[in-house]
């Protein structure tokens, strides 16, 4: 009864905050940019691109939007955060409204090259000079010999069983579904808290360990922790949350012993592919850079190029490396990462999160990341690289 009473008092005390937060929650539900930006004809266009000897630009098609963008925009801006008497909360919710509005703008322009790219920049930014330097620095390291743990010998069904077994350590339900139209071999749908596996994909032992610690250990942990918070923005996402979420996820790979130099190089190629967008590179030029200049095999080069060019120019992937650097520095400073696991939050908003904790609007996390309590990495090259990123 006492806990219920405390929650009631909080809701009464911050009634306008809960009202705006609840309204935004209803508006945000149909928005999931990653589901919308993944083409529905990837395999067909991949085969056509290969058959043309990499000369014909792929013509990607996208799912239909399930909402009215203009109506949704109007509803976002009708929320009036200026009604909040607390200036810190007003500023936070103003930023949140602009962030969600930009997300709608992004989705509404998918497939229109220039428009979508500029909207993508608003949400995800473009690689900085330091990002590009860090990527090139990583790519200078000699490839390490690949062991049997890198061979793709596990089927989707075997991967599903692996993830289900991995998730037993966590007190939340794991839903695993197979999907055709996703750019990665696995991804989490935040709306449905579902782990999606690409149909017909094969997985290596290392990839299973990587994806388990990345997708389950962070993305699903922050999804379920966010759902348990008093405010819905923790589940729906703070502005700039992607950089922090992906940084946490790759740190989880590192701490669990799953991170490899090959994986770090993959994240570096993604930065260079995103940087190419600002230089006006088309799909063929980006693919040529990754495949011919950096000698990546054609399937991996296609995947990296697709991720950067989907929608018309998507810069999200540039955030994995910069996110890793920022989260790694926090981790090395001795700061607990628990606040960053409280939902889909951002390092940029740590002061706001601490303030929400002070006024009783942040609950302690329910689910931890177990890799953060381990130190399974034995690769000294990775230690050296992470310590020397700019």
Structural summary, described in words:
The model is unreliable at 1-5 (pLDDT under 50). By secondary structure, this protein is mainly alpha-helical. The strands form two sheets. A three-stranded mixed beta sheet has the order 2-4-3, with helices on one face. A two-stranded antiparallel sheet has the order 1-5. The chain contains 18 helices and five strands. It has helices spanning 2-13, 15-28, 33-37, 42-51, 69-77, 87-108, 113-124, 129-139, 156-166, 205-227, 233-236, 241-255, 261-278, 283-293, 298-309, 319-332, 350-358, 380-388; strands at 152-154, 175-179, 186-189, 194-198, 203-204. It is 57% helix and 5% strand. The protein starts with a helix and ends with a helix.
